[in-house]
Amino acid sequence: MSSRLKTSAVNRHWRWFTNHMASALAVLATFLVIAPLVAIFVDLLYQGARSLDLNFFTKIPAPVGEPGGGMANSIVGSGVLLGLASLLGIPVGIAAGIYLAEYGRGTRLSYMVRFTADVLNGVPSIVMGIAVYALIVAPMKGFSAFAGGVALGIMMVPTVARTTEEMLLMVPHSIREAALGLGVPTWRAMLSITLKTAMPGVITGCMLAFARVAGETAPLLFTAFGNQFWSTNLNQPISALPLQIYVYALSPYDEWHRLAWAGSLVLIALIVIAVSLVRYVTTRGALKGAS
Amino acid sequence: MLLCALSIFGIVALIATELVSSSKLTLTKFGMKFFFGSAWDPVNSNFGALPFIYGTIVSSMVALVIAVPLAVGVAVFLTEMCPKALRGILSFLTELLAAIPSVVYGLWAIFVLVPLLRTYVNPVLIKTLGWTGLFVAPDFGIGMFAAGVILAIMILPIISSLTREVMTAVPDMQREAVLALGATRWEMIRMGVLRNARIGIVGSIILGLGRALGETMAVAMVIGSSPTISKSLLAPAATMASVIANEFAEASDDTYRSALIEIGLALFLVTIVVNMFARLLVWAVTRGTPARVT
Questions:
Q1: Are residues A198 and A113 both part of a single domain?
Q2: In chain B, whose CA is at the least distance from the CA of A89?
Q3: Beta-carbon neighbour count of residue A3 at 10 Å?
Q4: SS3 of B170, please?
Q5: How far is CA A133 from the centre of its chain?
Q6: What is the mean pLDDT of each run of 10 residues along chain A (291 residues)?
Q7: Does B86 touch chain A (CB under 8 A)?
Q8: Which of residues 102-161 of A touch B (CB under 8 A)?
Q9: Are residues A155 and A132 in the same domain?
Q10: What's the mean pLDDT in B81-104?
């Protein structure tokens, strides 16, 4: 009897100990995860803000060894590439999302499309880069802004399709039924009622996809290629912010490292703004008006 | 609409056919030997992808060994212990971590992480774990271990957020039942939550693995790009993705380019299989009946 009591006391202490140990470890893990995040942001803000000046936004890269210079051409280049990508990726993505949520709901085909989109999301971006290289750059015998835009556009499709679908699924059925009950044709109800209700969510989904490809470097390496000079010609190589950061980070010059930090800060600022906006809209109930 | 939905199949098919047709040269020339040869000699047109396959696997494993315990710890903390106010902030922070572009991680790794590892972490590892042969001098800072650490930081958010999702899908009844039997909080988490969510957690780990296998820029910037297989994790190496990023632009002859594209094709197929497997596991848990006590 006494020995059983004893083991149960030991047992109780052991359980108390493991319980608190596990809690402590979980807290420790959280700190270890947050630490690099904070470090990355602090370094970016410190190094980036220190190197950011007006020249960064107005000048093109200076020749090696000369101080000054900026990334104006890369910012414009990124704009051109992302504009092209959005033009290609967003309409296709939204249409695919509408199909998944409205027309093909519950069918085997839509299940397969959804699954493929998720898998496509996980394909490394560098693979997308060499596929577009083989598709466009090799036959055209030259790197071009157009090829870069196509590579980014293809990457946007699965993300936009999936978020559009999710947003449309959140629209209550009663709204569709109300429209259809008034004798509105299906396509009209879908465009003017369902899609319109889900619009804030769809837009934020597009911004999310936009933010994701805005930072992509790997698919641009062999498509847009990069350019030290002004260029907005779609048939010529074009510079982009992430590409320029990559080149400058690996260079041996302090001046270029400084510009790489500044470029990263600008890039991150753009992305964080987009993501925060997405989060704000989705958590504040973009669809509140609908319910 | 249907056409656009089908375009997603089209994209996959297009990537596959383009990669196969552009790598025909080495596919026919080397056959399966391509994946078992360890010589990478562009000058003599002799290509074997083994060093890169090895580099990809080892760097991903290092990343998983570091990231998985941390990610599960964070998920446990966020779902089971964390006060509500803090939860929102922390999950927002981990989401931000996922939104940072790869090239920025690479920049940070070159200028902050690598010096940090070289001066503080690696000497300790060499002293304490040198006998295993995994951490031996010379240590340049850049190399397999640095790549593994930055990969771990990059895949942490995806693993922890999916694990959190799976753990939230476990019904509260499971927790209440275990607590009612007199379990402590940790016993409740272990028996009530983790055991029910384990398939989904494995799925999220595999998704993280898929990400790590294909991650390019940050790895290419810190791994040192050397087509060699060495036991020491501190030695420079190369992965499948990093060799494409670093060498494709200078690949002048057709065989060289075809060899790199074939590596890309292999990477494509591997990540597709890994992702499919992971998605199926995650879906099985979050869609079907999550609470099956076996």
A1: yes
A2: B4
A3: 7
A4: coil
A5: 22
A6: 63 88 90 86 89 83 76 89 93 92 86 90 91 91 91 93 90 89 89 87 85 89 85 86 91 87 90 75 53 36
A7: no
A8: 102-104, 109-110, 112-113, 115-128, 130-131, 133-135, 138, 154, 157-158, 161
A9: yes
A10: 81
Of the candidates B76, B78, B75, the one whose C-alpha atom is nearest the C-alpha of residue B88 is: B78
Number of domains in chain A: 2
**Residue A31: CB atoms within 10 Å:** 13
Taking the Cβ of residue B109 and every Cβ of chain A, the question of whether any pair is shorter than 8 Å is answered with no
Residue B75 lies in a domain: yes
Q: Is residue B291 part of a domain?
A: no
- B130 domain-assigned: yes
Distance from CA of A117 to the nearest CA of B (A): 6
**Interchain proximity B71–A33, CB inside 8 Å:** yes
Q: Is A43 on the interface with B (CB under 8 A)?
A: yes
Instruction: Give the three-state DSSP class for B37.
Output: coil
In a domain, B37, yes or no: no
The three-class DSSP label of residue B41 is strand
DSSP string, A255-289: HHHHHHHHHHHHHHHHHHHHHHHHHHHHHTTTTGG
Q: What is the ipTM of this complex?
A: 0.85
**Tokens found for residue A105:** 């709901």
Inter-residue contact B138 to B232 (CB < 8 Å) = no
> How far apart are the CA of A174 and the nearest CA of chain B, in angstroms?
23
Q: A249 and A210, same structural domain?
A: yes
Distance of residue B214 Cα from the nearest chain A Cα, in angstroms: 5
* Residue range(s) defining the domain that contains residue A249: 58-290
Q: Give the pair of three-digit tokens for residue A32.
A: 């270890």
pLDDT in tens, B183-223: 888 989 988 899 888 888 998 899 899 989 989 999 999 99
Do A91 and A31 have their domain in common? no
Q: Which of B12, B267, B271 sits opposite A116 (nearest CB)?
A: B12
